[in-house]
Sequence to fold (139 residues):
Amino acid sequence: MSNCLHLAIPAGDLNLAKRFYCDVLGCKSGNSEEGHWVDIDFWGNELTLHQSEERLPTVRHEVDMGSVLVPHFGIHLSDRAFKALKERIETAGIAYLDQPYRRFIGSEYEQETFFIEDPNGNVLEMKTMVNPKVLFKVE
Fold:
């Protein structure tokens, strides 16, 4: 892997968190230290889940379409992968924090997004861009 993001987060119960990321989201686990941490291949990025007692506090921030929970992290997926992930989440009975919705309709930044949380309350935003090439367009 080159230029991948590394993010370490408190995971609460490590086994429960690993099952969520691997069995529900479809990620793969990697290196680990039993009872302390496990690396998750989060679509080519290294997400390290740490056994913990604490949860990160979240607040809502106002943006164009309402309010979003912060902090959050997530991934941009192809439309096909995004639809498959939504199906996995719904099949697993995971509740959406914010239901899937479209933003910036009709613009070059049009996207579909939704928010969920992992078993420790970490907030994830998953999205798909209609035109992914404009994500980091330089003006």
Remarks:
- The chain has two domains: 6-51, 59-134.
